[in-house]
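Q: Amino acid transporter transmembrane domain-containing protein, please. Structure only.
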Amino acid sequence: MYCSSFYSAIKRVNCFHRDGYGAAGCNPSGSTYMVVFGLFQLLLSQLPSLHNIAWLSVVAVATSLGYSFISLGLCSAKWASHGGHVRGTLAGAAAVAGRADDDKQAAFNVLLALGNIAFSYTFADVLIEIQDTLRSPPAENRTMKRASAYGLAITTVFYLALGCTGYAAFGDHAPGNILTGFAFYEPFWLVDAANVCVVLHLVGAYQVFAQPIFARLESCVACRWPDAKLINATYYVRVPPCLLLLRTSSSSSPPPTLAVAPLKLVLRTIVIMFTTLVAMLVPFFNAVLGLIGALGFWPLSVYFPVSMHMARLNIRRGEIRWWMLQAMSFVCLLISVAASIGSVHDIVHNLKAAAPFNTAN
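A: Structure for Amino acid transporter transmembrane domain-containing protein:
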């Protein structure tokens, strides 16, 4: 869903540049792009594990820096274009208007924003999988701690800088998505470059988050039917040399060959088809992003790591550290619940005016 909105943005920006802003036929549906993205993920999903998509992680990091710097530069230029005057206020649009409906909507927008922020920091579910791919020395946990600290610091700086600069540039009319929300159309080549970077980033991000889910589902199915030959079998198929990227490293079969497991082929295809269908039925960028972030933030990024930390250090119930960690966990739980409420409200609101299989910004 997210990727298709950026595909559509590229086509819309080029159309406006060619035919003029507001020209007819410049608002394409993203359903076709969702299907294309899903088909591409079907191919990548047949790679065995995170070890085989290390190159995707490198591409994702490079492209994320690319679109972050471009977005920050565009917002800064927009802000400077009106003399550096800050549009909007700290109180927000509803507080200025003073109407009850505006106040209510502003409150829900705050909750939705919490969900979007929470989504940005929900990475604990893949942290262990990534750590498992690291080599030692140095120790994997030390490398992961350093990577997490640097990653969180850099992303937080970018989020704050882009959020503040975007609000200063657009004020209360700031779109939910700077690159796809009718904010910028010129210079069109730079906006296109940023959108392409986002697409490439999402291609890698999908696999990084999906591979642990695939592994878990396949493990559960294999444990449920351990004697089923079809489920646990692996076949080796000869492939053209151009597909050496997908080649297995097994010495039991002559290269170039591709390991084909029926379980992996069927299960991963079903998962990707399901996620693609859901994205086409509920095409709301910020609302769904906020809901996913809200649902995953507390259990995966707070409760699970905190519980492991207390068990490893043998922190006993009633100690000061125990109370502090539990208080932090409870506050984060409240944030997740509040963000879920705001996201569900926004989804319900958008469903009244939107149609399935039609991307909404």
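A: Brief note, in case it's useful. Confidence is low (pLDDT under 50) at residues 246-253.
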